[in-house]
Inverse folding.
């Protein structure tokens, strides 16, 4: 097994560049961290380039495919980690854009300019749990390979198709497929989500935490839903609202 | 209006101590930050001791009660802030434990050793939005006056009764009041939440993110609920699960 102990090693510099969106897009690779995510990557045959294991976790090496392992020093692990206490296990993964053909027999979650990494990752994880057919990440959203998004997704991007693209074009496709598009902007035309019958196929759109959905997209939705608030809170967290809608609307 | 410009001022030192649980409990005060929270505190008659306004926001001073205002320097605001970019507006509030008598005609959310501040705050905000009667924060949970909890609650603690106490004693009370207690631990006896009829009064218990509910509490629940997962995600985020349960179970 290869061993790299100096933080000044050129490889370490390359790995650290994966902590930024620019670095990830240039290298066409991203970095995941922690036992759970690495195990999910292996289990779901993600395109793993390298597995980095801190020397203090040498005993774990047997758990992982040997041919791709690189032993690293604790110091390197601390520099690569984006958590307060690292588990010392990382994987470098090829960043391959999803080219799958979407199937429209299951619901879709569309994310319009969502900016908080934790919210974005949690919504993708929830769509996975709810048995959705896929997620469409509209332009202007936070990068899905951001370390906080990866932590919140808990590996869901390994088993749920995530498409990045222009939501206007996706809305056209949904319409051609007779898939209703539900917006989530509180306005006069909005109807309570409880009035919508459960169905197999629909698209639900969650907007930006502060500004909601983009106006031109909102105009193209089939219906606009709201969740009635009976207490004194002004609104729900976007990931909580998405969870309520996804689990209630799907058949 | 009083003005304090030096970060070395004794008052600044006292305010900074409110950033820790120990400091808050000793001073019996806590600190909130930002326009929205401060406005909620004023609107709901929270026991405000002082309002701190950064000198660069002098123009905002007219919006707030004048008698409690202290003008502070930008440097002090930056030291008191626990956000990347501060809005420069703070309030020091008396920490008065909730002594209200609970009414059992509405549902209750019980939190058992929940550790993540964002999850805790989001669940309290959701209980508020769902029109719950109150929240019981069991011992061993994160401090509700932690700045991250306060940010996620978005002021819900100003309008929803939050009780801190021993959940075992609360469970006894719920039983005396014929209020069903729903646990949320995935085990053999668990039933799908969709099989529970909507009711006005019940208690739902959310457990620790990693370890779930404490075993002795779990044994005392009326029923144990789970949310069926149809995709490949292993679980839901606890705040998302709480949101789905609260909005689905209440009448």
């Amino acid at each position: 097994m290869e061993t790299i102990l100096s933080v000044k090693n050129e490889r370490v510099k390359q790995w650290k560049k994966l902590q930024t969106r620019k670095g990830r897009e240039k290298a066409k690779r991203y970095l995941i961290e922690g036992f759970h995510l690495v195990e999910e990557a292996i289990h779901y045959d993600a395109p793993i380039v390298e597995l980095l294991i801190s020397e203090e976790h040498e005993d774990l090496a047997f758990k992982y495919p040997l041919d791709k392992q690189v032993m690293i020093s604790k110091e390197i692990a601390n520099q690569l980690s984006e958590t307060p206490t690292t588990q010392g296990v990382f994987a470098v993964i090829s960043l391959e854009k999803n080219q799958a053909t979407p199937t429209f027999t299951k619901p879709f979650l569309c994310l319009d300019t969502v900016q908080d990494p934790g919210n974005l990752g949690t919504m993708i994880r929830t769509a996975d749990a709810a048995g959705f057919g896929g997620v469409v990440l509209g332009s202007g959203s936070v990068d899905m390979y951001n370390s906080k998004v990866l932590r919140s997704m808990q590996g869901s991007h390994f088993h749920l198709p995530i498409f990045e693209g222009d939501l206007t074009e996706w809305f056209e496709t949904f319409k051609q497929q007779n898939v209703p598009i539900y917006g989530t902007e509180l306005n006069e035309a909005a109807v309570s989500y409880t009035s919508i019958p459960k169905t197999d196929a629909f698209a639900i759109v969650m907007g930006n935490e502060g500004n909601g959905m983009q106006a031109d997209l909102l105009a193209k939705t089939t219906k606009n839903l709201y969740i009635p608030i009976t207490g004194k809170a002004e609104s729900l967290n976007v990931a909580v609202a998405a969870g309520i809608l996804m689990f209630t609307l799907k058949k």
Q: What stands out?
A: Chain A has a mean pLDDT of 95. Chain A touches chain B at residues 118, 122, 125-132, 152, 154-156, 159-160, 227, 229-237, 239-244, 247-248 (CB under 8 Å).
